[in-house]
Amino acid sequence: MVIYLCKCINKGVSMTKQKNKNISKKQQDYFDKLTQDSANAVAAYIESGNKVKFEKYTVDTQIFGIAQNASGRKYNGNNALNLTLAQLNNQYAYNVYMTKKQIQEEIIEPLKLDQDKIEKIKLDYPKFNPDFWIPKGSKFDIASFSKFKFYDKDSNEIFNKEKIKELQNLDDLTLKVKGFEKRFAGKQNYQVFNISQIHHLMTNDTIKALSRKHKDIMNYEKARKGDVMPEEGINLKYKLIKATHRQAMIVEQGISVNQVEKAPAFFAPSDFSINVPKNNKYKSDYHALSTETHELQHSIGFKTGRDLSGMSGSAAYSKEESTTELATMVIFAYYNIKGESLQSESYISGWVKDNPQEVMKCVSASSKGVKDFLDNVSNYKNKLDYVNDLDEQCLLSFNTDIKTISDDFEEFKQFVDSPIVGYKNNEHGTVFVVEKGDVELEKELSLILKDKLSEYSIKTQKQEEKDLLELEPVSLDIEDKKLEVKKTKESQRKLKY
């Protein structure tokens, strides 16, 4: 699947034939195909709602996350959404991508010095040649970046590279005031490969070097050796994220959250509120997090002017639901959680396939929705004096300690299975934040709780440092690759050298 990332839509540039009179029919056909491929990818994700299963924690969920380049830089905007979607639909083992140039320099050149590794590869691929490492028929994805040129408004002069470096840090308004103008100058597209496709070419040293830049790779290598986070810890993580999202949107956007017994989850623009089932009504903590994040994303759409007026079955409804599902998927990826569409209406995926141009607008709108949502969360966290950053194992250990302490202190029972988002200090003492809101304790009890949080925060930090120091990645050989990188029937292709 080739995915074309249409940032140009944000600039008001459409890919229709009417607005692209200067390009050839061949180019237009190519753009149309890429756009349709993108729509099909979105449809494939939404169709997963028909068979969603809330399975136990697996290695797959531990290695999922926002798509990033092997350099350590995370993709953003439409690139992040499309490459994250590519990982989901193709079931790639990693969320890391490399360009052909990076693969040549960081994978192939070191490999040429390891003749033993080359001979091992040739046992499975007799025709393998390091100078022609891309397998015949390999599929790739596209990372697309907008190019800009800077002009002097009076002389229309294009500035040199040194001047551009200075100007790139200025916003558009400041540029205009200073007499400069930034103009869109086309797009630069790069073919990128998921490292799952070339893992069998990596030496252990290469894997270790990548692991130091990408915690996800390190976690995957640990998981392959049986070091998987406990399910109870993962469920606490889901609860913590849901509580953080809820409190952030209440404080930053003023939304109301109503928990009800039977009514379905929905967003009500009339009083800017969401109705969601009580926690014990969900199939799982994952389901609860996904549902509430979805409804909160509708509220972001309302604030930013998306059309929420469509009734079920309409094009407007399909467009908004598609936008929200994509945004929820990327928000999950931000937390290294594998997203699964909760949509079950088959007509939505049908609308997506039939309206590829509109889907590209959904992609752009969802990228904005993700940014606005995470900005709200970040702004909220900045107002706290402590933000809970415990990993899954420490969340579980902390919860166990709280259960024990609550035997002696009744006030602590409210924190059992209800992770603390963080706390803030004021002139009266300390206020702890949980899903239901703010909780105040007596000074002595506050100190006990703060000391416990500090203790486990240090443990989390030390564990991450220890993992990096002791990392001894397991090479993924060809047989393992076939088991770990599961391909769908549509995308499965034999590698032929």
TrEMBL record:
TM ranges: none
Gene Ontology molecular-function annotations: single-stranded DNA binding
Annotated ranges, domain Polyvalent protein metallopeptidase: 247-354
Top-level taxonomic group: Bacteria
Domain N-terminal positions: 34-106
Protein name: DUF1738 domain-containing protein
Source organism: Vibrio splendidus
Taxonomic classification: Bacteria, Pseudomonadati, Pseudomonadota, Gammaproteobacteria, Vibrionales
